[in-house]
Amino acid sequence: xxxxxxxxxxxxxxxxxAPAVLVVLFLGYLEIKRLKEHAQxxxxxxxxxxxxxxxxxxxxxxxxxxxxxxxxxxxxNSYNKQEIEDAFRETK
Length: 92
Known about the structure:
This protein is an all-alpha fold.
């Protein structure tokens, strides 16, 4: 058939482009999945850290330390003011 050879030449690029597009879509899917898992891990870590901080505050308040003493100890151990105040607010 004279027309079929012309048609295959016109659409030959499709045999290269279609698999390439599929590969790009698959890699995009994998990257999105990886980013979601990473975000969940960070959120879980922050939750654990927050719980440990609240427990530290409650334990030391029960031991008789003042809020300022606890705040100073936490600040010296690289906790920021927001984290410290959140822990105090959540222990009430």
